[in-house]
Amino acid sequence: GMEHKNCYFANSIIFSLQIFLGALAFSFFAKGFSGSYMKSMSSQIERRFEISSSIVGIIDGSFEIGNLMIMVLVSYLGPRVHRPKIIAVGCLIMSAGAFLSVMPQFLMGRYNYERITVSVDNSSKSVSACSPASSEGPAVTDATETLSTMINAGCEKTTNSYLWLFVLVGNLLRGIGEAPIMPLGVSYIDDFSKEENSAFYIGLVRSSGMFGPTLGFLLGSFCASLWVDVGAVDVDAISINPKDSRWVGAWWLGLLICGTVNFIASLPFWFLPYSLPKEGENENLKISHLSVQGDHCKIDTPAQPQLKFSEAAKDFLPALRKLFGNPVFVVFIFLTILQYNSLVGIITYEPKFMEQQFNVSVAKAIFLIGRYLTYFQIPLSKSKLLFVILPSVLEGAYVNSFVAYLLNLLYFACSCEALQVAGLTGVGCKRSVGNVFCNAECNCKVDQWDPVCGDNGITYMTACFAGCKSSSGTGRNMVFHNCSCVQGQGLGLGNSSAVLGQCQRESCTKVFPYFLALQTACAFFLALGGTPTYMIMFRDHVMRIFFPGGLPAPIYFGALIDKTCLKWGTKSCGGSGSCRVYDTKEFRNVYLGLIAGLRAGCCLLYLVLSVLIMKRFKPDGKEMTDIKNAERSASKELDTANKREILPGSRTSEESEETYM
């Protein structure tokens, strides 16, 4: 009976480890999926809550802050906690964060985008955007008045200026929930799998998680193409299209899906044991671990010695000091922080860049970023990573990084005509005869944004600014006629009409494919050169503690992009909203300049790193034994007295010298 029970037990152990691996792989997928979805929705959140890009950067950074707060704690607790249950709680917290972020959608009411054109009753009478104080005025004035009273009514109903805090707290919770998954999951595999299988299992778990980000961006692209109040509003009545800077997609819909996926990810972990006997240990050892209590089969785990936090801290700090005394390590940290910053900046703001520069809808831009991320995953899943940086690896990384930098400079060549907006980009509204404004008699409100494109290829802030006297059609097919400013540009009387929306710039549409080809090449070289370095960092989760380095990227990118805004929107209750239109040239220079600067820094640090390593490298075939030893001794000190007490899976430093993604 005993042998039969033991056999059954051995099988159930293997089965438990398989379940854990499967569950961990799915939780890796879930966190990548929800993380990239949130990233993809940043421009939608910016518009829905009428906030600036720098606030979006702060919302984005709250995830890192939450992650950081818990990461140190988790690293100390290590195996003294019930790891599967802590991971389950983490997934639940991530799920709660996603659901919390959705709340404003149900508190804010419908989204009223900024517009001046309103259809007056069902009569076929055309609406004039230009309302001089003449006899034809009243009908139009009534229309605009009803609109403003309608907006004010919406304003009293909900003070939604700070509802974005829900999204911030939700994101913070996602960061907190995600923190234990990787370190505890990896250390659990390290502890209970065969030494030779451990790296393979971790690689398996990670590569299955790779699909998460790509699918997250695909979902983001789909949701961005749906109207925000989908199902509650007649979409045909909406006068703007997905390319418009006032368009808001169904950002909340994907968050419901992310919340559900994270909830499902938590379920299997509740049923996994505190610990397992080590995979592949011989039967006798297994029997000694078993004590039969009636029919109940129980593992006697060796008691974990309780290490006091203060003692751990005492050992931890000298070890850190030793690591930071190693110049190779310090340069390496800064190099990784710079690479991480440029990557985070690109993933956060590239959709906005594409949309503003090349007339692409946000939905399409998000889809393309998802595709861009897949290039990073091809080399990842195949590259074997070394914790010790060997000169050959370094040279490859440097060459690839330098090629990526040169390609990055070519981005500046992918320029196209700037958007011409009358009154904003130096194009005036003066008549050709005399020095009079062509819309002088129209009484236009300066703070409105409901752009129209004149036949002359110039965009006007509103149909009123174009001096349009009549219109035909409804919804997004409305056409304005008799526009005095469009006439004034030397066109015949017959041609003075304008259509809703910004003017499309043909040259930009033509340049876009070249931009995409360049982006693909850039991503590929970066992935070949730079990503192994990231992965070495992520593998050794001592490093995660130094990763607030990526935290400021969305904030300073956002703040600098805000500086290039030409026209801020107006909230329904007054006050400035999100940016409606950017100076495309300035935006391009700031955004591409930032990335080029960060990449140049990377190239420089790669050079410094190779010089440092060449100095230490002994050409007598000893393969850098001294560096290996330096790294090892520093890592050994981190492990101090109790090998797995201070950091989960502290085996990282010695045994993960060859681990892969």
From TrEMBL:
It is a multi-pass membrane protein. Residues 432-487 form the Kazal-like domain. InterPro entries: Kazal_dom, Kazal_dom_sf, MFS_trans_sf, OATP. Residues 623-646 have a biased composition (Basic and acidic residues). It comes from the Eukaryota. Gene3D superfamilies: MFS general substrate transporter like domains (1.20.1250.20). Keywords: Cell membrane, Disulfide bond, Ion transport, Membrane, Transmembrane, Transmembrane helix, Transport. GO terms for cellular component: basolateral plasma membrane. GO terms for biological process: monoatomic ion transport; sodium-independent organic anion transport. Residues 623-661 are annotated as: Disordered. The keyword Cell membrane applies. The chain crosses the membrane at residues 12-30, 86-107, 210-228, 248-272, 328-349, 361-378, 385-407, 511-530, 542-561, 590-614. The keyword Transmembrane helix applies. It is found in: Cell membrane. Pfam families: Kazal_2, OATP. GO terms for molecular function: bile acid transmembrane transporter activity; sodium-independent organic anion transmembrane transporter activity. NCBIfam families: oat (TIGR00805). Belongs to the organo anion transporter (TC 2.A.60) family. This is Solute carrier organic anion transporter family member. The lineage of its organism: Eukaryota, Metazoa, Chordata, Craniata, Vertebrata.
